[in-house]
Amino acid sequence: GAVVSQHPSWVICKSGTSVKIECRSLDFQATTMFWYRQFPKQSLMLMATSNEGSKATYEQGVEKDKFLINHASLTLSTLTVTSAHPEDSSFYICSARGTGEKLFFGSGTQLSVL
Amino acid sequence: DAKTTQPTSMDCAEGRAANLPCNHSTISGNEYVYWYRQIHSQGPQYIIHGLKNNETNEMASLIITEDRKSSTLILPHATLRDTAVYYCIVRVEDAGNMLTFGGGTRLMVKP
C-alpha cells in the first residue's frame, strides 16, 4: 500500500521557537495533502488542506500566519509552527490521497512546547 | 458529509469477533462508508470502505444494511493489537475530499 512518511516523530522545543514538520508521499504523487491536529483523548481536527503549487486552504479558526504550509512538490508538504507556545502542544498528523479514494496517514508528530 | 454515531467504547475478548456498529441515517446515495482505526500515538490506518454491498478484505468485513442507514465493521478474530479507536466516516468519493473524523469507538481487546 501507499506510504506516507512524517518526520520528526516527536519534538520538544522552547516557547517562541519555530518547528517544521515534514510529510512525504514515498511511492506516489500527492497533489493534495491534509494536516490534522489531535489533542489528548480527542478526535482528529482538520487544520488545512495543502495543494501542490498553490496556497493552502485553512479551516476556520486556524491561523495561517502561525501554521505555515508549503507544498512545493508532489511528494512533500511541510507544516511550520511559528513562535510556538505551550498551547500548540499537540499531535500533528498529515495525510495524502493515494490511488483511488483511500487516504493514507503519516505516523504523526508529537509536539511539546516548553 | 453525513454525520455518524458510534458507541464511545466497546470491549472484546481476544480471539472472538469484534462487531463495531455505526449509524449514518442521513447518508446520501453517493456517499461511501469508510472505516479507519488509530492505534495509540499513531496516524489513522485505512481498514475498508463500501457503498452498498458488503465488503471483505484481509483486515475486516463491512456489512451495510439494505437501507444504508447503518453498518457494522467486523474483525473476525480480534487480537490484542486490534485495540484502537475505530472511526466510521461517510463521504462522497470525490477527488480532493478530506476525511472528517467523529469521536470513534474505543475498542479494548482483552486477553
Give a short synopsis of this structure.
Chain A is mostly beta strands and about 110 residues long.
What would your notes on this structure say?
The complex is a heterodimer of chains A (114) and B (111). Chain A is mainly β and 114 residues long. Helix content of chain A is 0%, strand content 53%. Chain A contains no helices and eleven strands. Chain A has strands at residues 4-7, 10-13, 19-25, 32-38, 45-51, 57-58, 67-73, 76-81, 90-97, 103-105, 109-113. In chain A, the strands form two sheets. In chain A, strands 2, 4, 5, 6, 9, 10 and 11 form a seven-stranded mixed beta sheet that branches. In chain A, a hairpin with a 2-residue loop joins strand 7 (67-73) and strand 8. The radius of gyration of chain A is 13 Å and the shape is globular. The mean pLDDT of chain A is 91. Chain B is mainly β and 111 residues long. Helix content of chain B is 0%, strand content 47%. Chain B is built from no helices and nine strands. Chain B has strands at 9-13, 18-23, 31-38, 45-50, 55-56, 61-64, 70-75, 84-92, 105-110. The termini of chain B are far apart. The model of chain B has no long low-confidence stretch (mean pLDDT 92). The chains are: A mainly beta (114), B mainly beta (111). At the A-B interface, strand 4, strand 5, strand 9 and strand 10 of A face strand 3 and strand 4 of B.
